[in-house]
């Protein structure tokens, strides 16, 4: 009788348990802007909170924010100034696509890779859905890194300067390339920099 009581209890408790499991708490990011970078200080904790590696979440953020950055087991650093709400929105979009099972809406899922495809596999209901593969830095960088003398960059010459040099735009820089012509795409080696102007020689015409 005691045993049956226990069974009854177990069954009556079951829906509660399911409810409990589905009440998934979305972690809240903590982010601070420090000069020209934004640091997510609880990156490691939120990754654990959604049972995903910092690697996959880091790749996702760099791609989706379209910026350069780096991450380790605890922090995510993004180049640029981002509002917390922006980051949290993207984070929740990640959870929607890469954590929550589309069938049963539970978060007990794993990311698996098979035949160059990525799947979200649900441990609760067994459903399997293909999801987009997260590519690192798939989005173009919004801000070009600072140039240094000796750098080799590829630019498209879009104008001709007064002295006949080709001119190209590279991030914040206006680059003057010796002996280049409008319409050319050239690899140029930077020989001089003056504020937002850079000067270079052609290494290769592409
Ligand atoms: Zn499921």
Q: What is the CA-based Rg, rounded? A: 25 Å
Spans of at least 5 consecutive residues whose pLDDT stays below 50 are: 138-143
Order of helices and strands: HEEHHEEHEEEEEEEEE
- The CATH first-level class of the largest domain comes to Alpha Beta
Q: How large is the share of residues in beta strands?
A: 25-35%
Strand order of the largest sheet: 8-12-13-11-10-9
Mean pLDDT, to the nearest integer, reads: 86
Query: What's the count of strands?
Result: 13
Are any ligands bound, and if so which?
A: zinc ion
Helix content: 25-40%
Largest sheet: 6 strands, mixed
Q: What's the CATH architecture of the largest domain?
A: 2-Layer Sandwich
Quickly give the structural class: alpha+beta
Distance between the termini: 85 Å
Count of helices? Answer: 4
CATH topology of the largest domain: Defensin A-like
Number of domains: 2
Can you tell me the overall shape? Answer: elongated
Can you describe this structure?
This protein is α+β, with helices and mostly antiparallel strands and 206 residues long. 27% of the residues lie in helices and 33% in strands. It has two domains: 105 residues, Defensin A-like (2-Layer Sandwich); 54 residues, Nucleic acid-binding proteins (OB fold (Dihydrolipoamide Acetyltransferase, E2P), Beta Barrel). It contains four helices and 13 strands. The longest helix has 21 residues. About 3% of the residues have low confidence. The chain binds zinc ion (ZN). The site of zinc ion has 8 residues, from loops.
């Amino acid at each position: 009788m005691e045993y049956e009581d226990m069974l009854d209890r177990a069954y009556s408790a079951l829906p509660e348990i399911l409810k409990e499991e589905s009440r998934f708490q979305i972690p809240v990011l903590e982010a601070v802007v420090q000069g020209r970078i934004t640091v997510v200080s609880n990156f490691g904790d939120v990754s654990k909170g959604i049972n995903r590696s910092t690697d996959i979440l880091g790749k996702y953020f760099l791609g989706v924010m379209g910026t350069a950055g780096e991450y380790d087991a605890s922090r995510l650093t993004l180049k640029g100034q981002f509002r917390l709400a922006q980051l949290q929105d993207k984070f929740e979009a990640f959870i929607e696509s890469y954590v929550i099972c589309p069938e049963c809406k539970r978060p007990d899922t794993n990311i698996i890779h098979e035949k160059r495809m990525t799947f979200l596999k649900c441990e609760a209901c067994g459903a399997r859905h293909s999801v987009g593969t997260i590519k690192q830095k798939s989005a173009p960088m919004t801000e070009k890194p600072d140039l240094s003398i000796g750098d080799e960059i590829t630019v498209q010459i879009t104008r001709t300067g007064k002295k006949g040099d080709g001119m190209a735009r590279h991030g914040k820089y206006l680059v003057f390339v010796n002996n280049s012509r409008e319409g050319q795409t050239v690899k140029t080696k930077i020989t001089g920099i003056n504020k937002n102007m850079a000067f270079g020689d052609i290494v290769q015409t592409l």
